[in-house]
Design goal:
Layout: H1 26-41, E1 46-48, E2 58-63, E3 66-77, E4 81-88, E5 91-101, E6 103-109, E7 115-121, H2 122-135, H3 146-158
Antiparallel strand pairs: 1-2, 2-3, 3-6, 4-5, 6-7
Length: 181
């Protein structure tokens, strides 16, 4: 079991768009395992790679007893919408109603590079949209109406966890040729 620390609101990695996965290798399979283990331990309905500090387009979900993952997702959203409670492991104990598409068709790949299509509605659709947003540097609070977002930001500033965890900066173990450290 590989439980990884979940990055909290304020960590820059949560606002940076993730890059497409190019190599479907053992490292990617370990990432999917780590994401799944961390999500189930939290527990949560989904977890995206940036939430554990990895800037790749990968996420996992756990909805209605089903565990899954998707790499390099592309979404087709229904015009019909749903408005309901949403939370995030990177924003502990924060829940607000958020407008989402009622259903989604998500295409991408599994951890072995095989093409996958996931069709879902209600909670699964919400989880897939939420996690794909993470891959684009978007948090669910960005999708709230002005009054709700203002209330959410107040709640975040007053929370016990806000500002306690400072983002870590890692130094690359590889030669960078003068590009960074």
């Amino acid at each position: 079991m590989a439980i990884r620390p979940i990055r909290l609101f304020g960590d820059p990695v949560l606002r940076k768009p993730a890059i497409e996965v190019a190599h479907f290798d053992a490292e990617l399979r370990q990432l999917v395992t780590d994401l799944t283990d961390t999500m189930l331990d939290a527990p949560g309905a989904g977890l995206a790679a940036p939430q554990i500090g990895v800037g790749l387009r990968v996420f996992t979900w756990y909805v209605e007893g089903e565990v899954g993952h998707l790499v390099n997702p592309r979404l087709r959203l229904s015009e019909e919408t749903q408005d309901g409670p949403e939370g995030c492991l990177s924003l502990p104990e924060l829940t607000y109603d958020c407008l989402r598409a009622l259903s989604v068709v998500a295409t991408g790949f599994d951890m072995h590079g095989e093409p996958v299509t996931i069709e879902g509605s209600d909670l699964l659709a919400r989880a897939i949209q939420h996690e794909t947003d993470h891959l684009d540097g978007i948090l669910f609070i960005d999708r709230l109406d002005d009054a709700s977002r203002k209330a959410a930001m107040r709640e975040i500033r007053e929370s016990e966890w806000f500002g306690l965890e400072k983002p870590t900066v890692k130094v690359s173990p590889h030669a960078t040729g003068g590009f960074g450290r």
